[in-house]
Amino acid sequence: MTSIDEALGPGWAILGLDEDPRTAMSAAAMDAWERYGARFFTIRPGTSVVERDELGDPTGQLWDVMCSHGVKFVVVRPDRYVYAATADAHAIGMPLLAAAATRPGGVPRST
Fold it and tell me: Could you name the domain of life of the organism this protein comes from (predicted)?
């Protein structure tokens, strides 16, 4: 089984709970995040058998945490801290602040 860090790969990631974030967020924001190099994943609860651009959540831990906080979409920084979490994908804006939070190459700036 692959760890979530390995599955996300390097750089930014946007996760959707049983929904593809690319189809849920605004086209302009999705295009901007894509140009910024973000990867997009759909979290599939109750399974480890997934397709490309999906993350399995066989034990439901991620599902439970996100649901308990009313969150359907999460933006994850390259250092794996959560940058944004929302119930509405349209609330995921352009990566302007994300760009300011990282150095070239997607490496987080130290605080």
Answer: Bacteria
